[in-house]
Design a protein that fits this description.
It holds the Pfam family ABC_tran. Keywords: ATP-binding, Cell membrane, Membrane, Nucleotide-binding, Translocase, Transport. By secondary structure, the protein is α/β, with parallel strands linked by helices. About 30% of the residues lie in helices and about 25% in strands. It has a six-stranded mixed β-sheet, sandwiched between helices. Strands 2-1-4 form a three-stranded antiparallel β-sheet, with helices on one face. Helix 3 crosses helix 4.
């Protein structure tokens, strides 16, 4: 297989992927993936464990190489993982400032970090140590570290999976508010179908290394899991995933 090459875009897009392939030994993980994420679009990616969701996200984010295909990302992609991955011996503001691109200036970087921490509701915790943060606060700090890079594409690898239900809903609201203000593209990997429907403009189902379905979510925001229309989408997606509802 040849290495991934770069596509020249023909229309505005946060990312464009063509015929992307990836193998681990004899196992094909991604098999000819074609995907476009529009500028300012939120796309959710669901699939069974081991279906290649995180691998695709890591390739788009530049953390892993593809075996074949084409990748174009307009601007700067940034990844937020399920674990906040904060450095425990650095205060929150310094952890966030580490997201700033080089060359770095401590005063300028910390000023930018404090501004973003205020955006995510953590201004009062800027000088706290990471181990004193709650799970939701730690994930807000991780999100701030991503936002301080001023990304055009935010790659989210199950960032809310370890949070309790109430904190997760709070983070959903925060993400949608930040997205409305900044208009970055989003690719969200999640196992939670309701989370995908609540947040995304489209939900993609990944199966056997291929995108098996592309489901637009034609519902106004805010969306709640209790709404009948959300339940209808959930039934459809669970059926596509081979899960009884």
């Amino acid at each position: 297989m040849t290495a991934a090459t770069t596509i020249t875009p023909t229309a505005p897009a946060a990312a464009r992927i063509g015929a992307l392939g990836k193998r681990f030994g004899e196992r094909t993980v991604l098999d000819g993936i074609d995907l476009e994420i529009g500028a300012g679009e939120i796309v959710a990616l669901v699939g069974r464990s081991g279906s290649g969701k995180s691998t695709l996200l890591r390739i788009i984010g530049g953390l892993d190489s593809a075996g074949a295909g084409e990748v174009f990302v307009d601007g700067r992609p940034t990844i937020v993982f399920q674990e906040p991955r904060l450095i425990p011996w650095q205060p929150v503001v310094r952890n966030v400032a580490l997201g700033r691109p080089a060359p770095r200036n401590r005063r300028t970087d910390e000023h930018a970090a404090r501004a973003v921490l205020a955006e995510v509701g953590l201004a009062a915790r800027a000088d706290a140590w990471p181990l004193t943060l709650s799970g939701g606060e730690a994930q807000r700090a991780a999100l701030a570290r991503a936002l301080v890079t001023e990304p055009t594409l935010l790659l989210l690898d199950e960032p809310f999976g370890a949070l309790d239900a109430l904190t997760r809903l709070t983070m959903h609201t925060l993400l949608l508010g930040l997205h409305a203000e900044r208009s970055f593209g989003v690719l969200l990997v999640t196992h939670d179908v309701l989370e995908a429907i609540t947040l995304a403009d489209r939900v993609l189902v990944l199966d056997d290394g291929r995108i098996a379905a592309d489901v637009p979510i034609d519902l106004p925001r805010p969306r709640t899991a209790a709404a009948p229309e959300v339940s209808e989408y959930a039934t459809r997606l669970l059926t596509l995933l081979g899960v009884s509802h």
